[in-house]
Give the backbone structure.
Amino acid sequence: MTSSPDLLERSARTAARLLGPWWNERTRRVLFAVVITAGFVVGLVLGLLQVYDREVLDVGEPRVRVEGLTATVQVTVRNTSEDVAYCPVVGVAALDRDGLDLAKAIALPDLGDARLAPKASTNFVGVLTGISRQDFDEQLSEYAAFVEQENPCP
Amino acid sequence: MVLTPAATERISSLTPTLTPRPKFHVTRKLVGVWKWPLVLLTAVYTINVSDQFLLSSMFPLLKREFGLSDTALGILSGSYLISVTLGTVPFGALADRYSRTRIIAWGTAAWGVTMIFTGMASGFVMLLLGRMVLGLWDPCDNPTSQSLLADYYPVNQRSKVMGIYQMGQLTGFFLLPIGGLMGQAWGWRATFFFFALPAFVVALLSWRLPEPVRGVQERRHQRLESDERATIPSRFQSIPVVEAYRHILRCRSYTASLVSSAVGSLFFGGIGVWTPTFLIRYHDLDIAEATTALSVVAVGGLVGVLTAGNLADFLTHSGYTSARIGVAGIARLISAPLFIAAFLVGYTPLMLVLLSFGALFLVAAIPPLNAARVDVLHPDLRGRGTSLDAVTQSLASAASPVIYGAIADASDLRTAYMVLIPLAALAGLILMTFALASYRRDEQAVQAMVRREHAEHMAGLTGAAPPAASAKAVQAPPPARPRPEADPAGADESGSEVQDAARGDPLLHIEGLDFSYGPIQVLFGIDMTLPEGGCHALVGRNGVGKTTLLANIGGLLHAQSGRMFFRDQDLVGIPPEQRAKLGITLMAAGQSMFGSLSVRDNLWFGAYPFAGSSSLVGSRLEEVLDVFPALGSRLDQRAGTLSGGEQQMVALGRALVAGPELLLIDELSLGLAPTVTAELLKVVERIAALGTTILLVEQSIGVALSVADSVFFMDRGRVSELGPAAALDADELTRRLLEGQQ
C-alpha cells in the first residue's frame, strides 16, 4: 500500500522542515488574507490611477483613404497640457488580425510644423505602402496612430 | 355483455395501474444539489481563460510603448503557452495529493498578483517574466476543478455539471472584446489591473469552499455507508508520479479518449485561426464580417455544451450505461460531414448554418467525454489524468494551425480543411470502437476499487478481516459460494455491516419501495439487499406481494416511491427491456412461454439483448442447450406440446439465453411433479454455480430451502432477511409462514 515518497512528497516535507513550526493553518490563513487584500487594493488603485492618468498628447481616431494598395492615414493630435509645447513624432500603422504591423510610416503635419502649442491640435498624415494584395484582403484588420516620441519643444 | 358501472369500477380497481415513471429533469440543470461550488469553479475557469488572448489584443499598445518587434511579441505568446503546458502536470499531481480548494485559492490569488506585476512591467524582460509566471498559475484550476466537481456532484449528473463548467471557457472568450475596449479607453496596464481584481474575489471564495472527500460520490452512488468526512486510504495516494501515469494509461477507455481528443484537436485547434481567412478568401467577406460570423458560430458551441451534458445523463439514466462515450463519439462523427458540407458550399448563409451545427456537435462531445474520463479514473488519479489530457490537447492544438498553413501553402485552404476534417470523424470512431467497448468495464472497475477500499476501511474500523473482493469481481461474476455452514448463533445476526461486506458486494439494493394497485397498497417500504452470487429464496404465503416485488425489480411495474439499485445503476425509470440489457431477467410463473411457437423460437426471444449479433445469439443458445440437453432434440417442436417440466425448461432456458447477472424466478415448482421439480432444481443450482445470482420466489418451503443459500421472508408487503438457509428449520419456517410471523 505504501511506497517511498516521491519528489513531490520529499519537496513538501523539506519545505515544511525549512519553514518550521510557525507555518501552520493560522499563518497560512493570515498570509492568504494579506495577499488577497493587498492584491485587491493595489490592483484597484493602480487601475484607477491609469484611468485618470491620461496621456498629455491625445491621439484621435485615424481616418483612412485607400487607393489601390496605398493607404493614406490622417490623425488629429491634441496637446492637453496647459503650459508645455510639444514637438511629437507621430506614427501610423496598418495592423493584421493579430495586432502585428503590416506596414508602418511616420506621419507628418499636413500644415506647418510639428510644434503643438498648449491646448492646440494638428493633423498628421502618413502614407502606408508595401502591403501585398493578399494581406490587404485577408489580414489587414485596422489602422492605428500613435505618438512615437512626445518631445517637449525646446 | 354490458357491465354495470359498479362492476366496471370494481374491475378497474383491480387492474394494475402503471404509475408514471419519475421524470428526468432535462431542463433543470441540477436537481437537489448545492450549486454554489459549480458557479464558483465556472467563474474561476472564466477568469483563467480570459487572459489567454488578452495579451494579443494589447499587442498594438505594447508595441508602441516598448517599441517591440513582431518577433518579441511572438516570444511573449509562445512563452506563455510553454508555461501553461509545463504547469499543467504538476498541478495535476498536486490536485491528487493536497486540498484542491486551497490549490485553486492560492493559484488564483497568485494569478491575480502576476497580472498586476505584468501590468507594472517597465520593459520586455518584465513582460516576458510576467507572462511565463502567469502561464504557470493558469492550469491551477482545470484539473483541480474537474476532480473537485466529480466529488461535489452526483455521479448521475456528472455530464451536466461538466457542461455547465465548460461554459466558463466560452464565457472567458466572450470577455476578450471587453479587454480590448478597456485597453483602448484606459491603456493596457489598466486592463491588466482590472482583470486581476475578480481573481482575488474568487480566490477568497474558493478558500471558503468545503473540501469534499475524494471518491465520496462513488461511495454515495453505491450506497456504501460510512462517515462521509472520513478519508478512505487508497494505494494511489502515495505512489510515484510515473507509476500513477502508467496506471492511468493502462485504462483503455481513458487512453482511447486521450488519443481521440488529440486527433480531434489536430483538426479543431486551427479552426479559430483559419476560418476567418476562409470566409474572406472563399466567401468575399471582409475581416469584420468574418470575425462576427465566427462569433455567431460560437453560439452553436454554447448550445452544444449545454445540451450534450443533459442528453448523456438522460441516456445513462435510461439504461444506456455507456451513453457518455456514445454521445461524445456520435457527436464527433456527426460534426465531420457537417463541416465538410460547410466548407464546400458556396452560399454563405448556408455555410454559416452548417458551420454552426458542426460547432454544436464538435463542442457537444466535451462535457460527456470529460465526465466519462473522470468516471474511469480512480478518485485519487483524476487530477493527473485530467492534466495529462490537457497537455495532449494543448500540444495538438498548437500544432494544428501550422498544419493548416502547410497544407494551404502546398495546395489551397479548402484542401487543408478537406484533409483535416476527417480527423474529427476519426476521433469519434476511436471513441465508438475502443472507448465504448471498455468504458463500462473500466468504470465498474473504479466502482469496485472504491467498494473494496471502503470495505477494507470499515473492516479496519471494526477489526474484522477485509473481504477478498477485487476489481475483477465486477467484470466476471464470482463462482457460487459454498453453502454456508449452520450458524449456531442463528439467523438474527446476519445483518451487520461487516458481514454484509464479507459475504460479497450487493448486486441489488432496494430501499423504501412502495407499490399500489390503484387504491390497494401491496408493497410497504421494502428494504432488501441481495448480495452478488448464489441463490436466494423469497418465501411467503400466497398474495403477500412476492410476484409484485419481482415485477417491480424486472421493470414490469413501477413503484410509487422508493429506490432500487442494480450494482451502481439506479433502476428508477428504466424500462424492462433496458433492465434486461443491464442483466436482469425475469422468468414469470406458470410455464411462461409461447405455446404456438417452436422451442427454438422461444429461446430466440430470450436473446433480445444481443439482437444485433447472430453469432453471440448462437453461442448463447449452445450454452443453454448444454444446460438443458433434453431440449436439443426438440428445437423444432411446438413448445405448447411439451410436458409441464419441459415447458418450464424452455421458460428457464429463454431466461438464460439473455445471460443474466440476476435471474428472477417466480414459482419454479408451480404445478409440477416433485421429481420434475427436483430435476429443475439441479439446473438452478448449476446456473448459480456458473455465476448467475438467482432470486427464487417460492411458496414451497422445502423447495426453497433445498436450493437457496439464504432466505428472505415476505409477509403483508414487507420483507425481512432470515439468513442462511442451512441455519433454518423447515418445519419452524412453515409454521411461521402459515401464521404470518416474520
Summary: The first strand of chain B starts at residue 506 and ends at 517.
